[in-house]
Request: fold
Amino acid sequence: MRVFACPHSITWVEFEDRKCLNCGSELAYDPEVDEIVLAEGRSLCVYRVGIGCNWVAPGYGSPCRSCALTTARPEGDDAVAMSQLIVAEYAKRRLIRQLFHLALPIESRRGGSGLAFELLAPQNGEQVLTGHADGVITINLSESNDPHREALRIRLGEPYRTMLGHMRHEIGHYYWQVLVDGEPALEPFRALFGDEQQDYGKALDAHYGEGAGEDWAADHISHYATTHPWEDFAETFAHYLHIADALETAGAVGMTVAGPHGVPEPLAGGITSSGTGDLTELTMADVLARWHGMVLALNSVNRSMGKTDLYPFVITPAIATKLDYVHGLVREAAA
Reply:
């Protein structure tokens, strides 16, 4: 994510801010220009008050381009579910802004096919399954609850589980349909990820019943990616978005890695890295070279604070090849 400034006081404000803490100006994010602007005189999202959306809307009394993609949400009188919805929409706005930044196609499902989000809280013992089906992304809002999500992460043996991570994974399924299915990219996809025509239900049962074997990490970015070629692609796509957003942030704040120091040659000063605002200008090899140095530094900072690694994954040559495939899809869509 890039850095934003209050247009009145020219001080740093966050992407989600509705008010500048320095000068008190009411703020809004305008997706058409990718800027934080003064809210006065603007058409603001109809959900600005209810869930804290700070986006400019296309017209007075209408939802913004992010909120308009949500076609199912909890009722306003459910305080717990609404608090969870705020967290989910917070993550979704970051996702949608990144998709705009990468120039990936987003077609609203209203009035036809396209993308839609159903952000739902379980009611009366009913189950809500996070997933994707033909452009509709369903998110179980219980994932907004930190203890619930952390308990699932531990039970499933996952090193990373966040609401934004769920969003990025599920949007990967959507872009498989948009950018891969039925296109010239399908055969290269099968060569890298496998044949998606295999029975998904049986693959899921096998994953949770038999596991993936001991050598799964050589070819897959996560254990869940071994389930089925669709899941492998979605996980790889999500990691591409993780890397892209983190490097954009690093570039925006001027973060560089040039070290390390206090160690013997050739390690001393042998790691250099910097962020970038536009991955499409680079090869995937260049992207991963920048990411490698950044991850070494950021993981070390986290460990210094007694935290787990910021990015607890290993990108092997096989995984890098899959990321390069996704990179090609994104660059082609942007072009």
